[in-house]
Specification:
single chain; 0% strand; 185 residues; mainly alpha; disordered C terminus; 8 helices; 75% helix
């Protein structure tokens, strides 16, 4: 979990640095300053959002607070025992009082579990509302970005083969000699 998150974060930062270096190269090649500024603005926004996601993942509710909430949800219901005893007397039904006490315990435990599930949105398939980051980035976002790229730049060199395999830098250089000239620039 943590190693994968760290690797993904480092990889993303490397890609942002590469994007920044490519922007500088484009400026040297004659990119208008307003366009370069716009690219830098997008870089900054992406970086801020990535940091925000990392903070959600890394610095969620402290362990001490989670432990207190767990103990509270387990040990609080017995303190309601006098109330349930009085309820049993008023209703002349011990079964009804026990049912209310069990429902109270289940409600507190369910509340705690739902808060735990909502706390970390990156648990993917484990939680009900989890985000499967691999599916989102590799499945949906990659396909959408490649489709947009194909529409905007129909003559651009492909990143993906016909069977959907991602081309490496070496594959593109060997398959497309013009790319080698651009990459070595």
């Amino acid at each position: 979990g943590r190693k994968l998150a760290f690797h993904l974060h480092r990889s993303t930062l490397k890609q942002l640095v590469q994007l920044s270096q490519l922007c500088e190269e484009l400026k040297r090649q004659g990119l208008p300053p307003n366009e370069a500024t716009r690219i830098r603005q997008w870089e900054r926004m992406v970086n801020e959002q990535l940091e925000s996601l990392r903070f959600i993942k890394e610095y969620r509710t402290p362990q001490a607070l989670r432990s207190f909430a767990r103990l509270f949800s387990v040990f609080l219901p017995p303190f309601y025992a006098p109330y349930y005893a009085e309820l049993a007397q008023q209703l002349n039904s011990l079964g009804m009082a026990i049912a209310f006490s069990v429902l109270t315990s289940i409600a507190l435990t369910s509340l705690f579990e739902s808060l735990t599930q909502m706390e970390d949105p990156f648990v993917g398939l484990i939680g009900l509302d989890g985000i499967d980051l691999e599916e989102e980035l590799l499945g949906k976002a990659q396909a959408e970005l490649l489709d947009v790229r194909k529409e905007l730049y129909p003559n651009a060199l492909p990143f993906v083969t016909e069977d959907g395999r991602l081309l490496s830098e070496t594959d593109r250089m060997s398959a497309f000699p013009a790319y080698r000239i651009f990459a070595e620039g």
